[in-house]
Amino acid sequence: MKTQSPRSEHSGAEGFFSFRQAYASTMGQFTKGLLTDIDQTTVEVFDLASRERAKQREGSRRDAYEKGIREVRDIAGREPAEELADWIQEEIRTKKRFPTARNVRKQGAHICRNHGHNVSTGSWLGA
User: Fold this and answer.
1) Host domain of residue 117
2) Does residue 76 lie within any of the structural domains?
3) 36, 42, 46, 113: least surrounded by Cβ within 10 Å?
């Protein structure tokens, strides 16, 4: 009797999309975990009044952090993505301000290149 692997239970496109959904869910949780670490750093560094003011501006920056982490992860893997998240946290701690989207893109591209990966000028990091 031949046993089927879990992936062979689904055939064709259905199996591919099930695999992609599971992969996306895992990667989404990974990115959310890194963003939670960045949020915790914000709580540690800024007082309540500063956090409230920053929260009004931070939404788009947090989106940039998420996009940067995902782009680095997609190009170079988890370890470099963690390196970018650590860099963002260190910038918040040492400079007492949020890194700009431009600085996140530059640092993300730098990290990818340091890990031996090319960054296309057409990608978000290469912009």
Assistant:
1) 47-127
2) yes
3) 36
pTM, full prediction:
0.65
Q: Which tokens belong to 83?
A: 């390196």
Question: Residue 123 carries which DSSP code?
Answer: S
Nearest one of 23, 20, 115, 119 to 68, comparing CA atoms: 119
The answer to whether position 77 is within a domain reads yes
**19 Cβ contact partners less than 8 Å away, ≥ 6 residues apart:** 7
Tell me whether residue 22 is in a domain.
no
> 124: closest CA among 38, 66, 59?
66
**62 C-beta neighbours (distance < 10 Å), count:** 17
- Residue 102, amino acid: R
How many domains, in total, are found in the chain?
1
Sign of CA dihedral 86, 91, 97, 103: negative
